[in-house]
Structures are given as C-alpha cells and as structure tokens.
Design goal:
By secondary structure, this protein is an alpha/beta fold. It has a single domain, classed as 3-Layer(aba) Sandwich (Aminopeptidase). The protein has a seven-stranded mixed β-sheet with strand order 1-12-7-2-3-4-13, sandwiched between helices. It has a three-stranded mixed β-sheet with strand order 11-8-17. It has a three-stranded antiparallel β-sheet with strand order 15-14-16, with no helix packed on it. It is globular and about 55 Å long. The N terminus is likely disordered.
Length: about 375
C-alpha cells in the first residue's frame, strides 16, 4: 500500500511538473511570436463580447526581418524570386466571432478591390501595406536612418497600420485583433498538420503556382497546399476562385486541428505554436492561448464564409481592378453581424470610381458544412 501511495505521489508530482513545464514552454513560445502595436490603443473595439479578427496573408518572399527566404524554401514554395510579390496583402479575411458562441462569419475581401487608401488616393486594397511601408522607409532614410532592421521594422508597422485602417474603413466595423502571415506560413501550417484535405471539381495543372492535382478529395502537403491557395491561372473565376480556395483551405485546416485533438493535446498545441513563431505576427496583448481554446468552436464547419461582391471590372493606372460599392459592402457586413453590438468608425467620403470596362460575376461562397469537405474549382 505504501508503494502504491508513493507511486501515486510521484505520478502526481510528474504531472504537476509537466503542467508547469508546459505552461512555461507555452509562455516562452508565445513570447517569441512576432507582435505589433499597429492596431493602436485608441482604435474602435467591438462590444458585447464579439471579436473581429483581420487575417492578412502577405505575398512576400521575405521573412519577418526583411531577409530573403532561403533558396531551398523558395524552390519548395514554387514562388519565384524573393523580389516578386513585394508586400501586397493578397489574402484579406475578416473573421467575426460572436460573443454568444453562435456561428462565426468570415468575409473575404478580393485583393484587387479599388478603395480609398489614406494618403495614397484610390488603389487596390492589397497595396495599402506596401505603399505605406515604402513611404515610411523613404521618409526615415531621408532623415538619415540607415539601419536595415530599423527601416524594415518601422516600415512594416506603418504598412500594417495602413492596411488595418483601410479594411476597417472599407467594411465599417472595428478590428479587435489581427494576424499576419507570409507565404511560408501556409506551407508550414499544412506540414504541422501532416497535410490538409481539399476537394477539386476538376483536375488542374498550372505552371505559375505549381498546382498539379487530380479531381476529387485529396490530402495536400505544405508545398502542395501553397500551390492550391495561390493558383488563379486556368480557373474560370480567376482571383475569385482563388479566394474560395483560401476559404476551403482554412475551413479544412480548422477541421483538421479539431479532429487531430490539437486543442486538447498540449504537445500538439506547443508544436503548432512553435511552427507559428516562424511566420506569424499578431497584435501585442492578444492572448493566443485563450483564442486557441475559443477556436475549438470554429472547427467542424462552424464558420460561414462570404466573398464580398464586386460590381464591375475596370482599369486604374494601367492595372486591372475591381469596382465595388462601398456603401453596399458596409450594408452587407452590418446586416450579417446584426444585432449591432459594436462601435464602427466613421466611413470616409467615397471618391468617384473610374469608368468600368466589363461586368463582374457575382461572387459566392458555399457555407462550409462540417459533414464534409466542399469541392472547389
């Protein structure tokens, strides 16, 4: 009996040590994830327990310090030279998590929507980050700043702030948190999950993204996942179909997180956080552990995805753009988030849009059903 008690006591001590060690390891890992003050302390906030999170995917071939990704990584990403892509936010998704635990909603903003960007006039919404980053770095360089790391850090903070403010004004709702990830993030996330399952209506082969998949349901590794979410050539809806692929990837990834027991397995959770620190930047003060627990409710199909509509296609400064109706966009988002429990910022005056050249298809995204993986083009 004494031996049993001694073993039980030892087991209890070991469990306690594991829990304490796991907590300190989590604190260490979460502390090493990049953080930003771009949101600002005086930014409008949601009320009533609701949370709005802006997910920004950078089309950048550089790491968080502005250094080129290693050539072997670029080769795996099939992303071309590190000079390509710049700092465009090619993925913009607003995730609304209701405080009452009801179904979350995710709004995808097409990257080529023509909007007002403070200090830069009208341009593609994806360019707010890069435009402000470049202007800030030029201004600091003119003041005598020469340190590359200092310029990169200041430029990125300015870019994040500009992108957040542009999306916030465009949608007319507060943004409480944000997460920024580069191209390598999709690659590392899929690998950390041992692959992500997707479904294609038709076989595809695209030399630009590296996508080469048969039709049907299949599990993609990190390299394949990046090709899947980047492909737009050869798809009937072009960029709009790429947006739906991003939605399908995220829905499948959250489903995989839950089914793999990630949220209840400390080892898996710590591995995921260790992976995230390579590619992720979030706003300072965001308690990721609490959100990961909350994120369990977002898996299993508990997110409704919507691609915000565009009215027409046109050209602006020699580039193809999407003409949108800002007032209509705000109404769609507000109606979806009713009852209104937030304090949205005042929307700026919308400038006249350029003359449209052709009508755009009405984008639509299926509700992601937890009973299966939706097939996309």
């Amino acid at each position: 009996m004494r031996l049993v008690r001694a073993l039980a006591a030892c087991a209890a001590v070991l469990v306690l040590c594991a829990l304490v060690g796991g907590w300190y390891l989590y604190r260490d890992l979460s502390g090493s994830i990049g953080t930003s003050r771009a949101l600002g302390d005086d930014a409008p906030k949601s009320v009533g327990g609701d949370t709005n999170i802006l997910l920004m995917g950078l089309d950048s071939r550089k790491d968080q310090n502005g250094d080129d990704l290693p050539p072997e990584v670029l080769d795996k990403l099939h992303a071309g030279s590190s000079d390509i892509g710049g700092y465009n936010t090619n993925t913009l998704i607003l995730l609304h998590v209701p405080g009452d635990g009801s179904r979350a909603k995710a709004f995808s903003v097409p990257r080529d929507d023509l909007v007002d960007i403070a200090g830069h006039g009208q341009d593609k919404i994806k360019k707010a980050y890069g435009l402000e980053k470049a202007r800030t770095e030029e201004k600091l360089a003119a003041q005598g700043v020469r340190d590359k790391r200092e310029l990169e850090t200041a430029g990125r903070e300015a870019g994040r702030r500009a992108e957040i403010e542009t999306v916030r004004d465009f949608l007319g709702v507060p943004i409480d948190h944000f997460a920024e990830v580069n191209l390598a993030g999709f690659y590392h996330l899929a690998d950390a999950l041992d692959g992500v399952t997707v479904c294609l209506k038709h076989p595809v082969k695209d030399k630009y993204s590296g996508a080469d998949f048969p039709a049907g349901k299949q599990t993609l590794n990190g390299q394949q996942s990046l090709a899947f979410v980047r492909q737009r050539h050869g798809l009937p809806g072009g960029d709009l179909d790429r947006t739906r692929r991003q939605q399908a990837f995220l829905a499948s990834a959250t489903q995989k997180l839950s089914s793999a027991g990630t949220f209840t397995d400390p080892v898996r959770l710590l591995h995921l956080l260790n992976t995230a620190k390579q590619d992720l930047v979030t706003d300072k003060g965001w308690d990721l552990l609490s959100f990961l627990k909350q994120a369990r409710n977002l898996s299993g199909g508990n997110v409704e995805f919507t691609t915000l509509p565009i009215e027409k296609f046109a050209t602006h400064r020699g580039e193809d753009v999407n003409i949108v109706d800002p007032a209509k966009i705000k109404r769609i988002v507000a109606d979806a988030l009713r009852p209104v429990r937030s304090t949205p910022p005042t929307a700026p005056q919308d400038a006249p849009a350029p003359s449209p050249s052709k009508a755009a298809p009405a984008p639509s995204a299926p509700v992601i059903d937890g009973g299966g993986i939706p097939c996309v083009d």
